[in-house]
Specification:
By secondary structure, the chain is mostly beta strands. Helix content is 8%, strand content 31%.
Length: 158
């Protein structure tokens, strides 16, 4: 058998990949987009994208975080965030949803938040934002490692 050489990155589970990414806003690249739908509940069968973001720069470079983007009326906030982040204006009327392949490689920023799943602490994308600056990794260092209470709502397009 030929010798196998592995290139083990810091993001591998057990090396640091399973550690929580601190709460904060990070530069990211859309790494993968899966067209799917909820498997249960009131929205079962409705279209959505499952997006994998790869953090781009900084201490957590290469780490991945996920988000679901709903593609049905009444649940479009994450879709509005995604379109704004990639520079597309959303206005009333008909809009063709970009194909998954059109989204891969787009540079955005993501706001990481902490959550709990089956009793274990996890992290996920809480917001998708336009990227600021020159791709330094953490775009909002002041928020890294802090929890915020309360939510400020801003009307879309204002």
């Amino acid at each position: 058998m030929a010798r196998i050489t592995l290139d083990i990155g810091a993001e591998e589970p057990g090396i640091g990949g399973s550690a929580l990414i601190p709460v904060g806003t990070y530069d990211a690249i859309i790494d993968d987009v899966e067209s799917t739908s909820p498997k249960q509940g009131d929205n079962m069968g409705k279209p959505m994208y499952r997006i994998t973001f790869k953090l781009d720069g900084g201490e957590y470079n290469g780490r991945k975080a996920n988000s679901s983007v709903c593609l049905w009326n009444g649940a479009l906030i994450s879709f509005f965030q995604l379109m704004t982040a990639i520079g597309k204006k959303v206005e009333p009327g008909k809009l063709d949803v970009p194909e998954p392949s059109e989204l891969i490689g787009k540079k955005v920023a993501v706001k990481i938040k902490h959550d709990e799943y089956n009793g274990e602490a996890t992290y996920k994308v809480g917001r998708i934002l336009p990227r600021k600056g020159g791709g330094t990794g953490v775009t909002d260092a002041a928020s890294a490692g802090t929890k915020r209470s309360g939510t400020k709502r801003v009307a879309f397009g204002s």
